[in-house]
Amino acid sequence: TIYFPAGSRAFIFQEVIDLGGEPITSEEYTGLGRVTEFKYGKFLGEAFRGNNELQYLRNFGEDWGMINRQEALVFIDNHDNQRGHGAGGDQILTFRDPKLYKMATAFMLGWPYGFTRVMSSYYWDQNIVDGQDLNDWMGPPHDSDYNIVSPTIRPDESCGDGTEWICEHRWRQIYNMVNFRNIAHGTDVSDWWDNGANQIAFCRGNKAFLAINNDTWDLDETLQTCLPEGTYCEVISGNLEGGVCTGHSIEVAVDGTARISIPTNAADGVIAIHEGSKL
Questions:
Q1: Per the domain annotation, does 156 fall within a domain?
Q2: Residue-number span of the structural domain to which 31 is assigned
Q3: Is the CB of residue 272 less than 8 Å from the CB of residue 210?
Q4: Domain Alpha-amylase C-terminal spans what residues (predicted)?
Q5: In this structure, is residue 145 part of a structural domain?
Q6: Which of 8, 67, 92, 242 places its Cα 20 to 30 Å from the Cα of 74?
């Protein structure tokens, strides 16, 4: 078929809800294939919601009690815990927290731990009573005969125009970070920087650079990007199209450093550049 060409194999993973202290553990299933690591989204939700500082993410992974990175399937949220079910509780980030969600997803896709899964959701009106959403059962957009309504696609490739599809996977800030991850694949984190609180930055080898500001004050620093000298299209704010950047650009000096500025009121709170975004 179109989606499964001849010779293709299914990607199989196992869902195990294990936040620690469970009678059934993730490690019991890793011998069969990848396993969902629910602690991942919980920990990142806590950090980006301000209940833990981003500076501590410098060793995010096995040192946090999560399973081996080669065995983990990781995600910010899924269809259950974005409704308050499953694991993670009110720490889970969803499309309803767009700025924090984009920052957490950028970190996930920029960090070399696990096999990442990007969420794609639809909107529903919440009805919160005693801390529980009584509308958590609601299904996807549909017509009067309950046929699912297809999303309409805007010129910028996002979903909209009257449907309730969220389509996080079509947000520029997310799909460009998928490309970032592919480009950085096989490289380690280097030149970690933090301000002792909630501003962080790091390189992925000499291929990519990411910076995040989740503080209540501006980030304005000269940081090592590990990239060759040149002008780079910043891929959170725009795309590189026909040799032209539709967003901001960043100048990397001959020594690999660049002035990195992320105001606290920036729309996304993240900047990302990589070898493929060089102008």
A1: no
A2: 13-121
A3: yes
A4: 190-278
A5: no
A6: 8
109: CB partners within 8 A, 6+ apart: 116, 118, 174, 177, 178, 180, 181
- For the chain, which ranges sit under pLDDT 70? 161-163
Structurally, the chain folds into a number of domains equal to 2
- For the domain that residue 235 is a member of, what is the CATH number? 2.60.40.1180
Question: What is the model's pTM?
Answer: 0.95
**Percent of the chain whose pLDDT exceeds 70:** 99
Asked if the structure places residue 206 within a domain, the reply is yes
Structure tokens at 65: 């009690």
pLDDT at position 101 is 98
Closest CA to 40 of 103, 96, 110, 116: 116
Q: Does any domain span residue 85? A: yes
Among 94, 121, 148, the domain boundary falls at 121
Distance CA 183, CA 110 (A): 10
Residues 6+ apart with CB under 8 A from 126: 133, 135
Query: In whole angstroms, what separates CA 156 from the centre of its chain?
Result: 20
Edge-to-edge strand ranges of the sheet holding 34-36: 13-14, 34-36, 72-74, 115-116
* pLDDT computed for residue 225 by the predictor: 99
Rounded to whole angstroms, how far apart are CA atoms 196 and 242?
39
Token pair of 104, please? 């957490």
